[in-house]
Amino acid sequence: MNSCHLKSFSLLAALILFAATKSNAQNTAGNQLFSSPQIHEIRFTFWQPSYWDSLTGNYTLDKEMRCNMVIDGTPVDTIGIKFKGNSSYKSPGNKKSFKVDLNEFISGQKYDGLKKFNLNNGFKDPTMLREKLMLDFLNEAGCAAPRCAYAKVYLNNVYWGLYTLVEEIDETFLSQHFSDPYGNLYKGDPKGDLKWYGSIDTAYKSRYELKTNKQTSDWGSLVFFIKTLNQSSASAFYDSMQLVLNTDGFIRYWAVTNLFSNLDSYLGSGHNYFIYHNISTNQMHWIAWDVNEAFGNFQMGMNAAQMEMLSMYFIAAPQQNRPLCYRMMQNNQFKQQYIDVLCELVRNEFTPDKLNSKIDSLANAIRTAVYADPNKFYPNQQFESNINDSLVIPNNPGAPTLPGLKEFILTKRNSLINQLNLNGCNAANTGTPELPAKTGITFANPVTDELVIHSSFPVSSVEVTDLNGKLLIQSATNRMNTGILAAGMYLLKINRTAMYRFIKE
């Protein structure tokens, strides 16, 4: 078994499980919207006679207007709604993206525990699958990322189109994911390159947005993080970054972003993310955002073939302008961790066997709504063809060729297998992942009703905890009943020293 793959599990155990984050299995707010396989139905009713003109005028003012909403048959009165987005808003046609705020006019109003959510129009995706696929992958890979579903949207009882329904990054999201939800949340827009511009916080206010604790206007945690990132010596860099950043979370985000060649991100354009200061750990946590350009849509002067063959080490030039990636690549420990995580994901998760069946299932689920969409940006034939094959948009010579989803997965995976082989990882091997060989321990993962540990040395103590460290099961043998556990991710401690992650199905 490849040593690079083996190392990845010990890294996951040592880092991701102590990230002071909460398991997605513990989420409650939004479960009705995001855990259900159904396509939701959302109806907005405007009583203003010229509501479209008002929405258009309010876009410039960044101001919500009132309307009533019925979501899956449940009425929610007097909510706030506004157009959202930059490029998506400027795209031709009437299918604009929306931000919905249930709390804007009635304090404390929620639906399914949520105050806000987003409806994205899919303006650069004939398949309407790119955003959903990458967000699901990010969540399943253990990254902090919003959840995604689908909704058929009606305006004054007129079917307006199929939208992706995306979770808002706000206090509710923070409380779901982090042990302390009261820290500072910054959005890396419009120019969140993380370069050092001095110690005065005004130098950062035009480059980032403070999304929480606005009254105190505290930029100190962001400035301190950026200073540490840029000014730590090479010898102190690893330890310094471990103190101020949940490095495992960022590296996993980085690996997934490369897998999907999503360059409208920190790797490429240098924005489209949130970074959160968790007060209880005094660390920054990376949160993914705005992944609609996944599968090589944002090409930065390259073509579709280059996006499918993208280097595993890609950082937009000049690389020093992305100091977080650049300095991590100069550090052997972080570089090896990135290789390990990428190898693990390519071997076990980013595979045609796993992703193609999901693509087919999602396409079958949304096909009728896509075909009926009166404001969609692409004809039905392009919805079908771009699932498999690259697509040149007719009558738009300046538009890039859009890689086909299945074609992209196969080509990108083969490219990364070759690249990883040159970096000591055999990512082509598949099968049930094992734990580090140096410990002499293996077990099936995921587990069902029984966990059996195979070990080259005596096992005298086994503990299973949740991701917050709460003890759930304890045993003095190599077997334990895991049928009592709910589905989700857990931490396994063997002989009080070896730590591993496992998934209960």
Description:
With 505 residues, this protein is α+β, with helices and mostly antiparallel strands. The chain folds into 3 domains: 24-167, no CATH class; 180-348, no CATH class; 433-504, Sandwich (Immunoglobulin-like). Helices cover 32% and strands 20% of the residues. It contains 16 helices and 19 strands. The chain has helices at 3-15, 31-34, 51-61, 87-90, 130-140, 171-177, 202-205, 220-231, 237-244, 247-259, 304-308, 323-329, 332-348, 352-372, 380-388, 405-421, and strands spanning 40-45, 65-71, 74-84, 97-101, 116-120, 148-155, 158-167, 185-187, 209-210, 273-278, 283-288, 441-442, 450-452, 454-455, 462-465, 471-475, 479-481, 488-494, 498-504. The strands form 5 sheets. Strands 1-2-3-4-5-7-6 form a 7-stranded mixed β-barrel. Strand 18 and strand 19 (498-504) form a beta hairpin. Helix 1 packs across helix 13 and helix 14 runs antiparallel to helix 16 (405-421). The chain is globular. Residues 1-26 and 431-439 have low confidence and may be disordered.
Write the layout of secondary structure elements.
Elements: H1 3-15, H2 31-34, E1 40-45, H3 51-61, E2 65-71, E3 74-84, H4 87-90, E4 97-101, E5 116-120, H5 130-140, E6 148-155, E7 158-167, H6 171-177, E8 185-187, H7 202-205, E9 209-210, H8 220-231, H9 237-244, H10 247-259, E10 273-278, E11 283-288, H11 304-308, H12 323-329, H13 332-348, H14 352-372, H15 380-388, H16 405-421, E12 441-442, E13 450-452, E14 454-455, E15 462-465, E16 471-475, E17 479-481, E18 488-494, E19 498-504
Helix pairs in contact: 1-13, 10-13, 13-16, 14-16
